Amino acid sequence: MQATTTSSSVPALPRWPGRLASGEVLQRIGHVASGAILPALLFALWVTAVQRQWLPEQILPPPSLVWQSLTELWASGELQDHLAISASRVAWSLLIGGSAGLLLGFAMGLSRTVRAYVRPTFDVVSQFPVLGWIPLLIIFAGIDEALKISAVSIAVVVPVAVNTLKGIANIPHTLLEVARVYQFSLPQVVHRVVLPAAAPSLFNGLRQAVMQAWLTLVFVELLASSEGIGYLMVWGRQLAQLDLVVVGMLLIGAVGVVLDLLLRWAEAALQTWRRAAF
What we know:
This protein is an all-alpha fold. Helices cover 81% and strands 0% of the residues. It starts with 16 loop residues before the first helix and ends with a helix.
């Protein structure tokens, strides 16, 4: 006699991948369309204000003039030069400030002695805005490249150190106990336990540092610089060519979006490595 097949033993039918893929595509299209509504409304308001002359052209340049200035600067290579200089400053600042922040965060997170002596001073100093460091940096570093890199490096140290410290503090004690049982050395503890467990917080600090570096650099270039995106905006304001100012603003926003996309891709790769590490 054949055995009776119950409903619980019948395997569940797999989902149709075509419907799932189409649903994901529609959802992404909906997100993109929702995010494009506000920029479209702002652009329409800009065009309307120019056509009806709500503001003089010297104050609110038309989109056609901004596009013309953008294409001319790009064709001449001047825009790429300013962008390359700003990107170089950000890279050096991330290298210097990020390394210092990591060392400081690891030292405070792994050593109670260092945390007891350094943490109170760090909490006070981290409250200082970058603008407050500028007069002191001018005295010691002048107004050349050292000023810009030093100011941006200071802005990078704080988020990297804070997130590194938080990541280490949130590591489960059981993982550290296992490391003690196996008598891991300090490099092994950092590589086998701290880095995989604190990876999300470390990456969060990196993302904050990159965005903070970019925004701080533009601010510093607005104050004292003869090159870079910030200088391009100051030059346009001094010449009463606000189309150059708008070009600089658009470029800053575009670079910010590209950096965010790259960091998201790196975060996805990091999560894959983290799962493999455990």
